[in-house]
Design a protein that fits this description.
The chain has one domain: Sandwich (Jelly Rolls), CATH 2.60.120.10. Helices cover 18% and strands 39% of the residues. It is built from four helices and 13 strands. A hairpin with a 2-residue loop joins strand 1 and strand 2.
């Protein structure tokens, strides 16, 4: 052979039909997608009392929907309460459905090599909002949501592109838990109503 490196690249005895797997996946996708949800009903949206707070998942890669790239949840923050505080590499967009409040944002200096290195900047900014507003959380920003209303819940819709996880960038860190967080807490509509009423009392 003409190339000197042929002694290196010609080595190996493993055989795998990886390209054929791609063809098979593409051929099978229409039938597979036909079984996945295009409409998700409230009864199919799971609750979670997470370290970030009270969540109702609208779209998640674990929910067998047709959505390939986006995860979304509704966060309900009881009157006068707050979410957890966290930081993630992905940017986030939140729509304020109900109530009014504010966010505290702290940008971080980041270096990405084989590991993530981040250091919070000194400045913390406050961003006020009300129903109808959209909140933007930049990548790698420490942030926390606060309900400024002592009588009504704050409801937010959070949307994050899940592609960053598939690129090996699932850098998510919980810094402070939401006040309502209890591990393994099972939620129902009645319990959610009680949580909101008890916080207001």
């Amino acid at each position: 052979m003409a190339w000197g490196e042929s002694k290196a690249w010609i080595d190996g005895t493993d055989n795998m039909a990886l390209y054929q797997d791609l063809l098979d996946d593409a051929a099978e996708r229409p039938a597979r997608d036909a079984k996945r949800k295009k409409v998700v009903r409230p009864n199919d949206m799971p609750w979670e009392m997470s370290r970030q707070g009270l969540l109702k998942h609208l779209i998640n890669e674990s929910m067998n929907t047709r959505m390939e790239t986006v995860d979304a949840y509704m966060q309900i923050i009881p009157p006068g309460s707050k979410s957890g505080k966290h930081r993630h590499l992905a940017e986030e967009c939140l729509y304020v459905l109900e109530g009014h409040g504010y966010d505290m944002h702290q940008d971080c200096d980041v270096e990405i090599t084989d590991e993530y290195f981040w250091k919070p900047q000194d400045h913390v900014s406050k961003w006020e909002y009300e129903s109808g507003d959209v909140i933007y959380v930049p990548p790698n920003t420490i942030h926390q949501h606060f309900n400024a209303d002592p009588d009504r819940p704050l409801r937010l819709i959070s949307v994050i592109n899940r592609i960053f996880k598939q690129c090996g960038l699932n850098d998510l860190e919980q810094i402070e838990n939401a006040p309502e967080y209890l591990p393994d807490m099972a939620l129902s509509p009645d319990i959610v109503r009680d949580l909101i009423r008890n916080k207001a009392a």
